[in-house]
From TrEMBL, chains A, B:
PROSITE patterns: FAD_PCMH. Its cofactor is FAD. Belongs to the FAD-binding oxidoreductase/transferase type 4 family. Keywords: FAD, Flavoprotein, Oxidoreductase. InterPro entries: FAD-bd_oxidored_4_C, FAD-bd_PCMH, FAD-bd_PCMH-like_sf, FAD-bd_PCMH_sub1, FAD-bd_PCMH_sub2, FAD-linked_Oxase-like_C, FAD-linked_OxidoTrans_Type4, Oxid_FAD_bind_N. This is Oxidoreductase, FAD-binding protein. The keyword Methyltransferase does not apply. Residues 37-216 form the FAD-binding PCMH-type domain. GO terms for molecular function: FAD binding; oxidoreductase activity. It comes from Dokdonella koreensis DS-123.
């Protein structure tokens, strides 16, 4: 059902000139995300002010028009895809950094600021914002908030939810509100700011966020440890996390991931059952002791080799394996299903063993790497959609992956969110009463269900 | 309106023997908290199982009986006081530590576990749970969750909300649910666990919590810095928080607090415009560099003296000023209103200056100390309730304190919560739409308003 002329008139008034897109060719790019799903919205609006967003939501509510918030479409779950049509609100023009307040360790931003632009701006003041997804250069802070984005630094500094102090937002009801202050502590009512984080645009549209900044360390050391198998690597992860020097990254790759990275990146990338990348940051004087504490924890049964680097070129070499991985994944199969499941750290060996069994059973290669310190594993199912046997197996294989994760007391997503991709598994993953409470919360913020319908919560 | 005989019969069946108290003399101790408010409940029940709590909430909902959750009554806001009568559910018998899982850095506990008992148990595994309120020896984890308790360690490790991963709970609707996993990352639906933290028993009764543990550091150094005034001390706080070595405590006392501590604790306690206590923990080898980084940041205009201690007796001497304070407060005035306001760190000087003006205007001494790194100040109004002039001024004085805090973009509470004490100020502090959204959320969890009625949210 296309937009009625009166609605289009209102939209034109609200979003003059090129702030309103209606031609399908203009709208189509706003209908896709990195899940490779797509749908054509009826129109796209590109607000520059909070007031426009408020008017937009009220208009959409009045006409029961579905409204889909969008950063830059780097999400991997389809959360920003306007399934069924409606309006996309793209936040790319609300991209101002409103304040960087070093004394209070906060930045105030509009939602369309790119994560990478924010990092560059606050680095000039000696700070960073902890969320550092691989897409940092092209993803927005608003999108990070929507899906509770993480990245390697989350092991020390938490994910997005741990680093948002306050929001300004417009609920689906057409009411706007502020919640939170530029303070790192508060016990004044239900925490509506944290409730927004991870809600994927289903409750409210965030138009401003106050972010917690962390001082940049002056030095960094990187360790690369290889192990005979994932069991001994996971035991090392547990030892590392049980001692007081928290690493600022604790990444892992399984044997298959290493094999592929080596194919692509060359023989400097080691052969092993598993690899850990361990980084620690701090004051230069304190770093040798900190690195040694981590090295001590990394040593143990199953260790093949341990290398410590602080020279930037040596660090680059250590990260080479991880960076060689993404292109190599693309080279072996045209289709990749990348899920970011989480399990308790101690269940990592059972997860990887179970994934190997699932891979063999379904004839679909599975490659695993990710944020070991959080138990957050990127499980990559690699297959040829043109191979009928593999294509037919893929859904059952994915379903088996989630069953495995849930049997290990894990959860569907650590940092990508649910969107469309994992919505069919929400009933398996969550307590039915918890889902029902979420649905009731949704109804209070968005009584007519106009915000991102068909996402996150199951039918 | 006393409990009807059929309800009493049901309660007796549910809570046999001494698990049900009905005699006023038995019930009275369960009607008080550390706000010095009190009310007599109609009965007190002391469950030992989740199933009992579930049956209890259903019974209360059926009969529209108000139900007040209680840990050990150490709260300072009246949040646990059964105003208007009804049932108190005391969690003191649900005090089991269900699991300490070192590999996954979590503990699973019942809500009645004392914070101090938990700390002792997890310390044996090399861990601590960050919330460390002054009442740790006698307060419960359930109470910590209810009010988002903090303490000195919050400056490095966050308050309770940052350290609860999962809950089991019974909503006021009589539905029980679990939410969250023993993982430090999750992006699977709205975060109901964090929503429970700080909700003061108004949404659900938490019957089990999965807590995030942190490894104990092997060494600690303590610095004491004195400054000519609060402005220069606050500037030092900003410098300390802007460099990468995060202290594990950053406490301050104003001039009046120091003067009183010295009266009680002796002349070893320095005379100064403000004092900072700065602690840093870590590996022994790394500690001198870390302490020097903090000392460097502490130095600057206005510094009178800086002392660094690592010997436990010297550390004790440094903390003596802070510890001498509480008894001295009691000695100068029988009545103390202790508010735990928060402002952005850079506003601390304006806060303290404003508090001095308010104190002079109302003729009520105000003494300030607290968690400077979080901008979280314990503002103590000291007065004689028998002095009619002071007693008459106290409410206006308190009101002026909150007006000041809000004018500095701060908030009512950092770690005590709202309860009864700060409820009259909620409309001043929060956006009306945010309050309305909280009220709607409350209605979804507790449709008949049986859980802790008259608390937290304004009328």
């Amino acid at each position: 059902m296309p937009l009625s002329p009166p609605v289009l008139d209102r939209l034109r008034t609200l979003f003059p000139g090129d702030a309103l897109l209606t031609a399908p060719a203009d709208c189509a790019p706003y209908g896709r995300d990195d899940s490779k799903r797509e749908a054509l919205p009826d129109a796209v609006v590109l607000p520059t002010t909070h007031a426009q967003v408020l008017d937009l939501v009220r208009l959409c509510r009045e006409h029961r028009l579905p409204l889909f918030a969008r950063g830059r479409g780097t999400g991997t779950t389809g959360a920003a895809v306007p399934l069924g049509g409606g309006l996309v609100v793209g936040f790319e023009r609300m991209n101002k950094i409103l304040a960087i307040d070093a004394d209070n360790r906060v930045a105030v931003v509009e939602p369309g600021v790119l994560n990478g632009d924010l990092q560059a701006a606050v680095a000039a003041h000696g700070f960073f914002w902890p969320p550092d997804p691989a897409s940092a250069a092209t993803c927005t802070v608003g999108g990070n908030i929507a899906c509770n984005a993480g990245g390697p630094r989350a092991v020390k500094h938490g994910a997005t939810r741990d680093n948002v102090l306050a929001v300004r937002a417009v609920a689906g009801s057409g009411e706007d509100f502020r919640f939170g202050k530029a303070t790192s502590k508060a016990a004044t009512g239900y925490d509506l700011a944290r409730l927004m984080v991870g809600s994927e645009g289903t409750l409210a549209l965030v138009t401003e966020a106050t972010l917690k900044l962390v001082p940049l360390a002056s030095a960094r050391a990187t360790l690369r440890a290889t192990y005979v198998d994932i069991e001994t690597a996971a035991a090392a992860v547990a030892r590392i996390m049980a001692q007081p020097v928290t690493p600022c990254a604790l990444e892992f790759m399984d044997d298959e991931a290493l094999r592929l990275a080596r194919l692509h990146g060359g023989e400097a990338i080691p052969v092993a059952g598993a690899l850990l990348l361990i980084e620690v940051d701090g004051e230069a004087d304190a770093l040798p002791a900190a690195a040694e504490a981590l090295a001590h924890a990394a040593r143990g049964a199953g260790l093949i080799d341990l290398a410590i680097a602080s020279d930037p070129r040596d660090v680059e070499a250590i990260w080479a394996a991880r960076k060689a991985l993404s292109p190599s994944l693309r080279s072996i199969a045209p289709k990749k299903i990348n899920e970011d499941v989480v399990v308790p750290v101690s269940r990592l060996p059972a997860l990887v063993a179970g994934l190997k069994a699932i891979s063999a059973r379904h004839g679909i290669p599975i490659v695993n790497f990710g944020h070991a310190g959080n138990g957050n594993v990127h499980v990559n199912l690699l297959y040829h959609p043109d191979d009928p046997a593999q294509a037919a197996q893929a859904p059952a294989c994915l379903s088996a992956v989630f069953d495995l994760v849930l049997s290990l007391d894990g959860t569907l997503s650590g940092e990508h969110g649910i969107g469309l991709a994992k919505r069919p598994f929400m009933r398996r993953a969550l307590d039915p009463v918890a889902i029902e409470l979420m649905r009731r919360i949704k109804t209070q913020f968005d009584p007519d269900g106009i915000l991102n319908p068909g996402k996150l919560l199951p039918d």
